[in-house]
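SAMPLE LOG
Freezer: B-3
Tube label: C17
Construct: single chain, 455 aa
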Amino acid sequence: MSGFSKIGFILATLGSSIGLGHIWRFPYMAGTNGGGAFVLLFLALTLLAGIAMLVGEMLIGNYTQKNTADAFKELDSTKHKVWKWGGLVLIGGPFILTFYMIVLGWVLYYLFSTSMDLPSNASEADWVFGSLLSVNIWAQILGFSAVAFITALVVSFGIKEGIERLNVVLMPLLFLIFIGLLVYASFQPSFMRAVHFLFDFKYYDISADVVIAAMGQMCFSLSLGVGIIISYSASTKPNANLLESALYVCLCGIAISLIAGLMIFTFVFEHGVEITQGAGLVFKALPIVFSKMGMVGVIISVLFFLGLAFAGITSTISLLEPSVMFFVQKYGFSRAKITWAIMAVIYLVGLVLIFSLHKDYADMLAVWGKGLFELVDKASSDIVMPLGALLSVIFVGWFIGKEKVRKMTSGFLSARAFSVWFFIIRYIAPLVVILAWGGELATKTLFSLLRFFGF
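STRUCTURE (predicted):
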């Protein structure tokens, strides 16, 4: 099997982390959590814990050169039977794909249809998006099918000819598109307002909620916990400089988040449109903004949704690859056949989720009063990814063995740097994931005590 080149590995890993949530989740989270305070905490946490966690997952794959399941078993110094099930994190990728590809299908729909007929007010935007979800089921299926086909096709070609080749093209194009949009935004009157909003730090804006939000965004933005980083690292040359690669990935990820934030807040402030959450920001608020900009807005809309499509497709291929790699290495399946087989299962589940959004089937497919799509989305962000990330850092910090980990990192970490990194992996990173995952009460209690003592 041909593996990644150095630049291919960095760009593919970057492509896995820069997804739809990176571009629409970061601006929303910043907008509702204090602006500069949130951004500063996000940057600090990414540089402190995020890079360390990324190196940890890279280490598992790069040292063993094996799929996620076998990598956990090989490195477990305790030979505890629980780590034989470490490969269960592989389920996360296909699980997330069942709804992620649907959302990416919406992006394609907006790219090819509504960019030329943008909604001019909130009621029109609600109608366009609402009709796509609950009425125009064939448009959803068409977009979903296109994403499924492209994803499976790229992965079926393998690491070198498929995944690397796509990322080497799309990642530079993504940055060019968003840098171009940022340059345009920088000439708008509201640009400095966006700069001040994102970078003016006020101590009193920091609260437990802001800290939790920043920790959650950091975990969300690095593709940790679903086998992507382990699988990609196993497909690059052994003894690679993982710290260097992790730095490139984290810094570029930070850059695209800040570019997206500056661009989106400039446009939103300029035209007085309210920032809304997630899909509402991309499919409702921003189209209204673009419509107010005339013909320039149409061009910007096309470029924005094109960039979003690039970001999404590099993420979908990364979510599929770990499970494909497992079956190819473990059981000797043909890469092409197992890729299309796994995608067929994902596709069938995704169709059920699409029908669960339609007005005629929503009640029939509801579970505990909630739609299937909402449940899968919530389970992915609140359970699958955080749990996988927590298991990975605990495994590296406590179950491989400190001396072995030291030898594994000796090629790119000095003794002093290793001590700092290992302390973060063993103590800081698990705490960050736990607090981001379910530590709202603990974090708020800590902040109450700090306020009580005058901090």
